[in-house]
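Kindly inspect this today.
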Amino acid sequence: MNDNAFNLVIGVLALISTAASLLRYYKARLPIKRMESFDKILRSSKALFTNAEKNGFMTESLRAEINMRFERLDASSPEARARAYESSHGLGMCVWRGGLLKEIGLLIEAAEDLRLFIVVRHILAWSSNNI
């Protein structure tokens, strides 16, 4: 009987830990969490851009290009943000089929690309001024 009780306890603990892992995995990929990640990346990109501008590392054409890319990201995010908010108040499972996660993923990728572009331009401008 002791072996059965021990096996039962181990089985229950394994089931609980598996359920907790799945819940954590699912929650990290909810659209509202992904939009928070997008917002964080966009804020850091804007801070880097402002810093590069203050240090005089941005040419006028580069500044215009980066501002245009920021405007595009700002213009394309409200619809995804609204859909992410709607999906957080209800079943939310329809977002897996509706393409919302892919749309948010593309926004995140574009924001990361813009941040990388700013960082590389900042480093190149800094290195050319200090050589």
Notes: The CA atoms of residues 46 and 115 lie 8 Å apart. The mean pLDDT is 84. The longest helix spans residues 100-130. The helical segments are 2-28, 31-54, 60-88, 94-98, 100-130.
